[in-house]
């Protein structure tokens, strides 16, 4: 292969130091990195600089909020769109233009970003044992520290390869520090199958797990880093994906093994041993705080995360009537996925994407649920109220008004929500105001305990059908949301297929806007069905004292089978001669 990694390795050894500081990423638990003027020799000439270098690898974990040129990954799915025209999702993913510069860094920069991170991992792994000891270190202390830091570097490297393989399929596997002047890098092959990447990832995670800190014994200074529990949680996710329809033919992981991986985490770390669902007497508050409360502030649900400090970022995501830019706009498609508070689904049938089946632009109503198109926001799942700002929802000191010409849907506005909804999730209006200011934590959770329960339910149903364990795991998630009606009483969940569609719906609403939907519909092999469908919104008209609601198409979407994978960036193709992914 011609110069396959040359464009990656010519980047400065410490270019990662130009990223957000580790203090921003993890609060006071990690020190800031040193000057980016340090050479590699200076970095590994003393233990302090080496620790800074190791800390900085965590900066390559990307915050998902606004990652695509100020728009969210879920704005590329059927769950949402972006209100403003400069949002990268609108001018790249949504129209099928995967070469658009506006899609950076998700489409353009991901390849280089993660290979730079992998090179830092490889460099640390090769050089850390030769760093001189400090005067206050014992041999035993140094060995323990090196063992843990190497395990973290291997776990992080596996995570970075996972992110690459999801997007690009088979990618070159590099496990040594490469010198850009060494022409032998021309011979590094791209595996013939992504199976090689996935097997490498699984092997690395398992090999490094026992050398990581255990949640019950880790020291405060290591808080926020990869632990044994976080490693197992990542394995649960990856094994669930690899058992799914898109990857099942690789024969790497069975549904039974995926279920065992989730069960192992639950037994060792879940059920309150260390992790559990965050709870509160009010279901809306419980779900909201599960997202906005930092791990450092004793949120027991967060397994792996990064926190980028405090900011006034609320302005870019607030309704326009409050002086905000609109931002992420939930779709009617997502709204229609939320059950009623009584535990019943508002519509009669749901498809393999987890969404209601639409006929002539609207789903068929389940009369027994109590849902009414004339009053669509009353009596819904608490997670709906914690995720979506709808017409009439209280925000700061007044209700949201997205009626035609209303305060949050003024005529002629270029940033008003095109769907009639604004984002509520992550938005702590008790901390900040889009006009008067204030700051809040930009919390980004990679893995939380609710996902593990959903992983377990899905894998168990696929392996054994709707057995008791499936109901039990789902019931925990729904009980926290106030949906305490026993799922076993529902006659529509008595076979594997109906339960499968229900789990997919449940997973979607629980994990909405957390960077899951784009990858879930791909692994289920239903991405064309989910991502090429119209994005619906709601038009609200005030007639006298009555409100009239009507669904409408807010945006048409493009998604073709080749878009299951991203194209390899053109710059890499030009420099290396690498063959691009099918269809690109």
Could you characterize the architecture of this molecule?
Its main location: membrane. Residues 1-18 form the signal peptide. This is Putative outer membrane starch-binding protein. With 584 residues, this protein is of the alpha+beta class. 34% of the residues lie in helices and 10% in strands. It contains 18 helices and twelve strands. It has helices at residues 6-9, 22-26, 40-43, 47-57, 110-127, 139-168, 195-209, 228-243, 255-269, 283-292, 332-335, 382-387, 449-464, 468-480, 496-510, 517-523, 527-531, 570-576, and strands at 80-82, 302-311, 328-330, 358-359, 362-363, 388-389, 394-395, 398-399, 422-423, 440-448, 535-543, 546-555. The strands form six sheets. It has a two-stranded antiparallel ribbon with strand order 1-3. Strands 2-10 form a two-stranded antiparallel ribbon. Helix 5 (110-127) runs antiparallel to helix 6 and helix 8 packs antiparallel against helix 9 (255-269). The two termini are 19 Å apart.
């Amino acid at each position: 292969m011609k110069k396959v990694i040359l464009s990656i390795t010519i980047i400065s050894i410490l270019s990662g130091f130009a990223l957000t500081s580790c203090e921003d990423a993890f609060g006071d638990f990690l020190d800031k990195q040193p000057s980016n003027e340090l050479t590699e020799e200076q970095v590994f000439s003393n233990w302090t600089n080496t620790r800074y270098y190791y800390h900085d690898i965590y900066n390559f974990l990307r915050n998902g909020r606004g990652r695509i040129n100020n728009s969210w990954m879920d704005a590329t799915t059927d769950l949402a769109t972006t209100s403003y025209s400069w949002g990268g999702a609108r001018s790249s993913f949504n129209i099928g233009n995967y070469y658009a510069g506006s899609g950076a860094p998700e489409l353009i920069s991901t390849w280089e970003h993660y290979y730079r991170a992998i090179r830092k991992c490889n460099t640390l792994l090769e050089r850390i044992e030769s760093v001189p000891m400090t005067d206050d270190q014992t041999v035993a202390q140094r060995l323990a520290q090196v063992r843990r830091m190497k395990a973290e570097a291997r776990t992080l490297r596996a995570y970075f390869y996972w992110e690459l393989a999801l997007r690009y399929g088979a990618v070159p596997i590099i496990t040594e520090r490469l010198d850009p002047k060494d022409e032998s890098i021309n011979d590094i092959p791209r595996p013939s199958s992504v199976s090689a990447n996935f097997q490498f990832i699984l092997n690395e995670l398992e090999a490094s797990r026992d050398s990581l800190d255990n949640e019950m014994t880790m020291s405060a200074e290591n808080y926020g880093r990869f632990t044994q529990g976080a490693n197992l949680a990542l394995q649960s996710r990856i094994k669930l994906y690899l058992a799914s329809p898109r990857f099942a033919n690789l024969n790497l992981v069975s549904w039974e093994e995926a279920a065992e991986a989730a069960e192992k985490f639950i037994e060792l770390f879940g059920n309150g041993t260390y992790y559990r669902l965050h709870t509160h007497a009010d279901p809306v508050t419980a779900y909201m705080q599960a997202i906005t409360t930092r791990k450092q502030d004793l949120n027991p649900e967060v397994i792996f995360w990064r926190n980028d400090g405090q900011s006034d970022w609320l302005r870019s995501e607030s309704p326009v009537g409050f002086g905000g830019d609109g931002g992420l706009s939930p779709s009617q498609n997502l709204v229609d996925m939320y059950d009623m508070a009584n535990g019943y689904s508002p519509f009669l049938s749901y498809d393999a994407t987890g969404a209601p089946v639409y006929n002539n632009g609207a789903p068929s109503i389940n009369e027994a649920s109590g849902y009414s198109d004339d009053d669509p926001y009353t009596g819904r799942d608490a997670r709906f109220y914690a995720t979506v700002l709808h017409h009439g929802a209280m925000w700061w000191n007044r209700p949201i008004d997205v009626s035609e010409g209303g305060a949050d849907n003024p005529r002629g506005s270029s940033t008003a929500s095109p769907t009639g909804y604004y984002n509520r999730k992550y938005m702590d209006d008790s901390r900040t105001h889009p006009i008067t200011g204030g700051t809040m934590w930009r919390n980004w959770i990679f893995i939380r305990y609710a996902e593990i329960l959903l992983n377990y339910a899905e894998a168990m149903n696929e392996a054994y059908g709707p057995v008791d364990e499936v109901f039990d795991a789902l019931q925990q998630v729904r009980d926290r949301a106030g949906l305490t009606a026993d799922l076993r009483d529902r006659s529509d969940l008595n076979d594997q297929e109906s339960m499968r569609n229900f789990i997919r719906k449940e997973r979607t609403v629980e994990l909405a806007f957390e960077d899951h939907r784009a990858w879930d519909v791909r692994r289920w092999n239903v991405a064309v069905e989910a991502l090429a469908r119209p994005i619906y919104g709601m038009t609200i008209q005030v007639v006298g004292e009555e409100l009239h609601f009507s669904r409408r198409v807010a945006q048409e979407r493009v998604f073709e089978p080749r878009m299951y994978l991203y194209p390899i960036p053109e710059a890499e193709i030009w420099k290396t001669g690498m063959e691009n992914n099918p269809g690109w």
